[in-house]
Sequence to fold (314 residues):
Amino acid sequence: MEKKSRLLQIKRYLEERTDEAHPSAIADILSYLESEGVPADRRTVSRDIERLMESGMDIVCNADRRNEYFCGGKGFELPELKLLVDAVQASRFISHRKSQALIGKLLSLGSAHQASELNRHLYSDKQIKSENERVYITVDLLHTAINRKKQVRFKYYEYLPDKRKAYKHNGQIYEFSPYGLIWNGDHYYAAGYSRHHDRIITFRVDRIASPRLTDKPSIPEPDGFDMSFYARQVFQMYDGPVCEVTLLCENYHMKTLVDRFGENVQTAIADYGHFTATVSVAVSPTFYGWVFANRMKILKPEDAVKEFEALKTI
Fold:
């Protein structure tokens, strides 16, 4: 029992108090064990470290520095942990309280010495953090429904003019067959078939209330349904008939086009100051508004040209 306790104490010490920049000598480990009331000597500590290494624990011995030891692979390197902490801190859909809890767990994956470096100074506007503490549970439930091909039931809320939350359609229960989750604009959306709407739509996950997994099989995806294309259609230009549109753009618009449609957007040089771009979009007032705001010109198809010109006169 004493040997097991000593092994666990040494394992904990190496995991929590050492890393590549902060190795420990046998004397340091002996001092720690003594403070914990665990009897040991240099020989038993060396033997225990060997046992831990044989069991698969990644312990590195720095022979150049009087046999100093540190715990190697802990699952994440320090730069990776920093990136995860920043992502959690900046994410809008995670509430402030849940962010603090998750960051605390991420800190435990590093050593005590690394904790101060994981105290990040990333600016994020806490006013736009989600207030829904259960979003992560809803996300997990939706993933489960997708994997099991089951429907979910929930209510959905919106905001009234006075900023109060209210259930849509007086508490309508939505029966929904989720096909996938989409991350856009720092929010989660669930895409799938809604029986109430009788079509594929998206719901913002943090506005889903009282979700419940059912035993009813989900409505299968339509033949040829492409989640990637659907996401581009919905989140790039919103609902509307999809068609190819050719735009005449000024050279400074290239960044705007790439930001919106990606680096593979089809373009061609038109003249010294302009280029054309051919994009597949859902033609809608939202799209026309985007074109107008960016001072672009629609070259074809003719129907889109006429509809855009008509809207400009309203």
The chain has a mean pLDDT of 81. The chain has four domains: 2-71, 78-128, 135-217, 227-312.
